[in-house]
């Protein structure tokens, strides 16, 4: 019978081996999940894998491991990305980048540049705010999903303004241009956060060696138009005018962010006359048609092909 001290020493060594084993399994599960998703594995997934390790044989364990990793994708909880070394241009943003039009501006820009389809990645996500976009882009960059990317086409911030309007002025009854506008302080705070998010995103992209092109937003046409973004399915001319006052302030912050972080500005707002002169340039109140996206693509083309200062 072993002495008490020997028994304690054996028990301690056993606990250490168990801890090392668990740490290895944690690291293995987490690294496998991160290679697939670009993010760390949720604790619930790690626990499920450990249950498989404890109660199932080797073959069953491998099958369950695959099922558990696949579950978040099948459930729509995690966005799946494979590493794509062919991508050189990453178009990133909200529904202005990937919207309801038959062709978005990145696809038209790709054609204008004479690039193959596999060289462009459209990472637009409708309704996304700049904060959400910052987290998503940084995840893609850290996971090196596009290891040979050279250019980031960045268009975000519109979701932030939509969020503010939905919360504080859903019927667009007030204008930030009004001297008595009651939401001035809240709006300025909101825009400051948006600008900080945009600057942080630009900085993260430039730190990886990407050339960054940042776009301002186009304005609403100030006439009666369909508009799913508002509580009612149409926008009135007075509402469009108020919306444009919000967009003007957002664009000021985007210009400042681009200048502060050394990004190239693609001033879509400056092409307002070209866009608003033809109703066919709009898909609805806050999205461009293929024809309108062609104007935007040409602006990006001029910025990309312009000689360096």
Overview of the structural elements:
With 309 residues, the protein is α/β, with parallel strands linked by helices. It has helices at residues 4-37, 43-55, 58-74, 105-113, 130-142, 158-168, 184-207, 237-261, 272-276, 290-305, and strands at 89-93, 120-124, 151-155, 211-215, 225-226, 234-235, 264-266, 282-284, 287-288. The longest helix has 34 residues, at 4-37. It starts with a helix and ends with a helix. 37% of the residues are buried.
Query: What coarse outline follows from CA principal-axis ratios?
Result: globular
Helix % is: 40-55%
Strand content: 5-15%
Q: So how many helices?
A: 10
- Largest sheet: number of strands, sense, barrel closure: 5 strands, parallel
The CATH class name of the largest domain reads Alpha Beta
Q: CATH homologous superfamily of the largest domain, by name?
A: SGNH hydrolase
At CATH level 3, the topology of the largest domain is Rossmann fold
Distance between the termini: 83 Å
**Mean of residue pLDDT values:** 83
Compressed to H and E, one letter per element, the order equals HHHEHEHEHHEEEHEHEEH
Structural class: alpha/beta
Taking pLDDT < 50 over at least 5 consecutive residues as the criterion, the unreliable ranges are 18-26, 35-47, 71-78
* Strand order, sheet with most strands: 2-1-3-4-7
Write the CATH architecture name of the largest domain: 3-Layer(aba) Sandwich
What would you report as the Rg, rounded to the nearest angstrom? 25 Å
């Amino acid at each position: 019978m072993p002495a008490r001290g020997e028994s304690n020493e054996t028990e301690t060594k056993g606990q250490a081996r168990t801890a090392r084993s668990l740490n290895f399994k944690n690291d293995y599960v987490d690294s496998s999940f991160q290679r697939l998703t670009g993010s760390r594995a949720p604790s619930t997934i790690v626990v499920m894998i450990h249950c498989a390790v404890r109660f199932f044989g080797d073959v069953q364990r491998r099958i369950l491991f695959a099922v558990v990793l696949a579950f978040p994708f099948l459930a729509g909880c995690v966005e799946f990305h494979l590493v794509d070394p062919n991508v050189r241009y990453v178009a990133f943003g909200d529904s202005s980048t990937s919207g309801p039009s038959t062709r978005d501006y990145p696809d038209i820009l790709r054609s204008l540049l004479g690039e193959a389809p596999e060289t462009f990645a459209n990472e637009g996500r409708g309704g996304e705010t700049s904060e959400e976009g910052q987290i998503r882009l940084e995840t893609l960059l850290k996971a090196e999903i596009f290891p040979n990317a050279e250019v980031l086409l960045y268009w975000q911030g519109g979701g932030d303004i939509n969020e503010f309007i939905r919360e504080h002025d859903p019927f667009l009854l007030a204008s930030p241009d009004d001297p008595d506008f009651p939401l001035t302080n809240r709006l300025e705070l909101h825009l400051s956060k948006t600008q900080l998010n945009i600057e942080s995103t630009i900085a993260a992209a430039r730190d990886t060696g990407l050339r960054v092109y940042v776009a301002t937003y186009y304005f609403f046409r100030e006439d009666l138009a369909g508009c799913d973004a508002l509580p009612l399915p149409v926008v009135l001319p007075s509402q469009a005018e108020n919306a444009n006052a919000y967009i003007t302030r957002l664009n000021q912050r985007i210009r400042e962010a681009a200048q502060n972080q050394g990004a190239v500005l693609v001033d879509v707002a400056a092409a307002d006359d070209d866009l608003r002169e033809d109703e066919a340039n709009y898909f609805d109140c806050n999205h461009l048609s293929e024809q309108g996206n062609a104007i935007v693509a040409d602006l990006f083309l001029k910025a990309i092909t312009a000689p360096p200062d």
